[in-house]
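for ur thesis appendix - histidine kinase. copy paste whatever u need, i formatted it the way the template wanted (i think)
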Amino acid sequence: MRFIRQSLMSKYILLLLFALVIWPTFPAGYYFLYLWTHPNSFYETEKLDAMWKAEAITLNGASASLIHEKLMGIHGRYPEARLFWVDASGHTQFVEKRPADIPAQWSYRESVAFDANIKEDKETYTVTALIGGSPEQGWMVFQMPTRHTDLSMVPFFGDARLAILFSMACGGIVVVSLLFFLRLRRRLIRLKKAMADTGTSGVPREVAVRNRDEIGELERSFNEMVDQLRRSREREREEESLRSQFIASISHDLRTPLTVIRQHAYVVQKNPASPQGISSMEVIVNKLGDVGKLIDNLLSHTLLAAGKYPLKTKDVHVIEEVRNAVAEWYPLFEQEGFEIDVNLPEDKALVWHVDPLWLRSMLDNLFQNVVRHAKSGGYVGVHVAERNGWTCLEISDKGLGLERPSSAKGAGIGLSIVALMAKNMNLHWEIASSSAGTRIYIGKPI
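the 3d part is after this line
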């Protein structure tokens, strides 16, 4: 309701209603003012007719002097009226001086013409009555200008005061309407300037919302758009920075094995059959495997980010799946000199609705990170643990932590893949890293 009261449409409708009400109010107000300022200048025709005929009856048998005296008294009450009477012989007796259009002696033709003129004359109200109710005693006439008997004959357009008031009212409505639309125009121009002024950042400035009407809602929406645009620009800058770092890290990840391959290829080229050449060939094969794994991770990361990596979820026995993954990595852990601590109780059931291939890929990336970055700690642990009221997998090492520099540290694609897969399978994962090692928790909260 508050918005409706402050709405521009409501205000404009109120302005129109005011204008529509003011037009009929002026004539009515003028008529009321006219009657108030001229209390004795307007008469009801019904009362005049009844009064005149009643007076004619009372003059039954009256003498000429009495009739004249009576009519003089009536004329005193109605000074705007013209009164005269005609005696039995047809002679006109005037209360005042004789009007030019009234004959002194009436004939039949003049009587008929007078009767016809009464019906056609719209400016004079005329009442006739037989004296004493009998034609033998004559008849008398009462005439009153219709401006004193008919409100429609009031000189409405001829009154200067009314014309001034009417003009002031019309002018007031025009001024109020003009101010209304000028105010709207000023607010729209202010909003237009704010949209055009993008400054050095390329993002418009927010505008102050002063009213809760339609333009106020538009200003509020504009501010929301500006805020979203600003955050989008900030995200773009952050993404550009991350993209630059990512490309630099990827370049490092590719350059390192390629440099090693180039060096050992030179050895193989010089002495292919020597023990050193055979050893270099094994190194080349291993490094090519690392490059292939990096390329696979790049492709997986791209597909996951685009939402195009195939996901087929089903109920998976997680402990059994983790046990199989550890068995595959066990020889490599032993070869690299890791102490392997596995605690996966067989009597504990842990079933998640996930994609088994995605889960295996997550474990492979985490185990690979342990081999590459936590070799100095010489420890890898895989346990089932309770954390914050939910059962989870815990993969731990005793390396230097994720924040410490490492010669093998790259773009972190493996952890990015783990994060994307966990998010798409509604898994929760946490990393707790320090100089004493890293613990990664993966679970499905209830």
